Amino acid sequence: MLQRKHTFVDGIILQADQALRTVFGEPPGSGRTNPAESTSDGELSSTERAESLCLMRVNHAGEVCAQALYQGQALTARRADTRSQMRQAAEEENDHLAWCRQRVHELGGHTSLLNPLWYTGSLAIGAFSGLLGDKWSLGFLAETEQQVVNHLDGHLRRLSDRDRKSRAIVGQMKTDEAKHRNTAISAGGAKLPEPVKKMMTLASRVMTTTAFRI
Ligand SMILES: [Fe+2]
Ligand SMILES: [Fe+2]
């Protein structure tokens, strides 16, 4: 079957569709089973439940950012194999997005009201880093994934041992993010300068602190 080449307008429409699905809908994932399904809920106190809810809301917002970063980079990445790696990773991030959203709802809460803002900001950052060239955009990706792994480690320390479902999701996400990091490095990602890494940590702290509450 003949495939039509996407025009610029097609690209904009596809991008808008992706953005709306990420922030408001249920974007298609890779088809994996939610890791929380293989475990049962423990008895959580109201404090533990509230803490889990806030942490899982932060994780959901982080996955909204991940989607936008990957989409932004896929828009501007020069090499076709880099673009396809970005799209593949974005699909896996969709699993995380769906699992976190489901867990937030099970815990009786809502996802971050500022998700449209997180998406827009991350899309711009992703597109900008894509413009710097594949070496730097892959390096940026590798560093982002490393920071997410560290952040998820912190969440595993904070989540109650009884919240087995959230822990199962966060544990699987950590494994996947480490894999994404390694893929980006083996694809040629450069090591970022320390000041850039520090700025990234600072920016993610703004998001995580805000999404914890709103
Ligand atoms: Fe993720
Ligand atoms: Fe990732």
Structural notes for this entry:
The chain has 7 helices and no strands. It is mainly alpha-helical. The model has no long low-confidence stretch (mean pLDDT 83). The N and C termini lie far apart (47 Å). Helix 1 runs antiparallel to helix 2, helix 2 (46-76) packs antiparallel against helix 3 and helix 2 (46-76) runs parallel beside helix 4 (115-131). It binds fe (ii) ion (2 copies). Residues 66, 89, 93, 145, 176-177, 180 line the site of one fe (ii) ion.
Computed structural class: mainly alpha
* Unreliably modeled segments: none
Distance between the termini: 47 Å
- The helix tally amounts to 7
Provide the succession of SSEs.
HHHHHHH
What is the helical fraction, as a range of percent? over 70%
User: In what range is the share of β-strand residues?
Assistant: under 5%
Large-scale geometry: globular
Heteromolecules bound: fe (ii) ion
Rg over CA atoms: 17 Å
Largest sheet, if any? Answer: none
